[in-house]
Amino acid sequence: DGGITQSPKYLFRKEGQNVTLSCEQNLNHDAMYWYRQDPGQGLRLIYYSQIVNDFQKGDIAEGYSVSREKKESFPLTVTSAQKNPTAFYLCASSEEALRAHNSPLHFGNGTRLTVT
Amino acid sequence: EDQVTQSPEALRLQEGESSSLNCSYTVSGLRGLFWYRQDPGKGPEFLFTLYSAGEEKEKERLKATLTKKESFLHITAPKPEDSATYLCAVEDQGGKLIFGQGTELSVKP
Questions:
Q1: Which residues of A83-104 are buried (b: 16+ CB within 10 A; e: fewer)?
Q2: Which residues on A lie below 8 Å from B43 (Cβ)?
């Protein structure tokens, strides 16, 4: 079955450490996205990529970095510069860039990151 | 400023008790409105896309409608398995997607 795989499901880190969240898709989608979900708030866009070797900042990119070396992979690094990194992180993809009318987002099952 | 507001924040229903969830929006040119279902600890699952006022979409016990200012997700005779958080998202003319905070639905048998 095609889909998006995020790993690990739970991640614990000490403050000051960088951590990388994995996202792999086998849907052959061009566009990939990282969102952050916090209780009582809507999903917020961190970074997105419309094509390999290209990515753009979203609304809350500070303290995060990404790479897109392969079409199927879009890892997210949460750096020590991120002031409040504890959250539920969701990776998504869409068939066409910028979410064309017939191209809704497909989400992975998330990684819950806890930093203490 | 573009904004999406969902109400209520939480809704508790008895099995079979029909109701509606609301998604109000202000956006500079609506390109599409999306409904997603999210189960605890999982990623959102796509339900519907609506493009213009007056449009309706149905799937099993769910029916989504759209006006120029809001969308409703009607749930007819809900079952416990319909319990989830329902997310609304609006896409503006620039391709930006704005999510509401969600409505947590609980259906008791």
A1: eebebbbbbbbbbebebeeebb
A2: 4, 6, 90, 92, 107-110
